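U., I forgot to send this yesterday:
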Amino acid sequence: MAETYSLLIQNTEGISKIPGGLHGTPKLYVAVDLDGSCVFKTHNEESTLSPRWDFTGNICADLPSANLTVEVHHKGVFDTLIGRCHTTIGELLQQSGANTVVKLDIKRKGSISGHIFLRLSHVSTQELQEAATRAVQRMRGDVENIERSPGNPRVMGIANAAIQAEAMADNFQPLLSKLLSQLEPIVEMGDEIAKIHPYINIAWKVLTSVYKVMEKQRNTDEKIVKLVQAMVQLYSSVGDMDFLRDKINSLENVVLEIAAQTLECSLFIREYTGHGFSGRLLQAAFSGMETKIESLSDVLMKLKDSFDRGVIIQSVFLSAKMNEKVQGLVESDLLQSLKPAQYNAALRDECLHGTRKDLLTEITEQLSSTTTASDIIWLYGVAGSGKSAIANTVAQYFRTLHRLGAFIFFDRDNPSTSDIRGVLHHIAHRIAESNIHVRKAICDALCADATLVDADYRTQFQRLLLDPLIAAAPYIFGPIVIIVDALDECLDSTSRKALLSLIAGDMAKLPPAVRLFITSRPDSDITRVLRAKSHVASRQLDITTEDTKRDIYLYLHQCMQNLRIEWPDLEPQWPEEPYKFLQNFDPQSRLTQLLDAGEIINSNLDQLYCVALEHTADWSDSTFSSSALSILACVVLSREPLTVKTLISILDPVLEGLKVAKALQYLACVLQYGPGAPI
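Result:
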């Protein structure tokens, strides 16, 4: 039988600051959870880090072993967790014997952030009866007042509806605030949880944006409140930072799936509350939403159980997309008529864990955001700078979330990938497989016109992609990401020109939920078309930054560690000794000695640069070739890095400045430069 207890929240002490950035005047309150569910919270105490509430709340618990969590928060634009303590009903009751106020440590990220003073006591049967009597009397008085109002039935209905709406909003905001406070310390862990951090980071930002908007309106309902409550219950287990660190090592797949499912639920909440890519969705899009929310909540509880028990389970990830698997034979045959180009990413490398962190975060956030003005991101850089590894990593990120619409990568050694017809058919086929509404619209178009697969590329884009996606836009939950890697390796000049034309013009008409990520070298034709477009966000992959140097160090360190695994008999000082050897008086000379001694010859980069230069311009044009060779000679032989201005002054007696600037555009595949920056 459930027992009723009275919990006194007296005061805190020892809190020195509010974590994070500037928060203004302190506004502290306490939230109390029982077995992961919010029981009550105190009022706000302002202008002090040593507040005193003297607040009493009642708790009903079946067993003394029920888990009690007490958290201290700062109330801001979104709430900030200052610290929490964990105990049980039985433990706190025993400590509070003889009406004693108990001092407990509150912790944040494993460190003590202050102390809180509590007292727990039984509530007697007589006290419960007296409280119930007072509540009934208040209710009778309220009902009598309403009944005396004119238009009695209508007034009663409006009052009841208002009370219910207020209760829903009051539940949603505190729950969302609590969830944000649970996710915030995980976001702050950063590098310690490199694999799950990108998912949690974006989930936190998505939910923060929802919180800020929903704080100003009260139009949520019970279904979405239940989903947020399930997320809060999940993170009541995951939120212990020390415990999470240990679990990442033993339950990596479970923790990764928790992070991915958290982001998926966050995207769903954003769409459901009307603040996603398409604004308020059509009512028809919500058919079956109660079942969908229950399914998402069930998955969260399964993950919580797996995490709590330390048991590895088969993947239970559930996408909130409208992706019913029912597909008739007629639709299947129609889609097969597309004969899409095949792209197999099985052997493509991703970024080494821990590298490209800021850039990957920037790209994934922008592709997931509803507030960016640009629906297309173009990442460009010199040959061999790692663009394809970044594209592969971004593709895997959105594949994990079931948000990857299509992944296209051109290969100059495989001409079949360069046909514009195959590219469009591949995108249409992949997106049709992921969304029932897009699939129906594409199949209707193919059924109405069997010759559509042979039409000109603009007609195919319009009928197979643009029209179906616009028709299905109200039913698209979250982003659909299309990735095009190595656009410069599309060697079919006609297809390349057509694809650039679509990117520069028609693709801007796609629904906001459809996002495009493109990588390429800064070839002159690509640069000329994409840089001038407002809907394309250009981003240079700069190889001269400190982050790039750090990533190179991490890569080399990992390679040397791999050699140690492959050759366990290496000297104990490996990999320190080779590094110290290179650090000496003349690193370049020492590197030459080291390479010569080991007979290591690696011409891959030479071959890569040769291929890049070969395809960037017409080298049979003597004017261009002489200009390009003069520029390359100056850059390679110069003892100090040259700026464009210095290069022009050196070559001015031989070449005109205009020729130097023009030739540099065609050498951008191997030379990185900018105004005033060294080449």
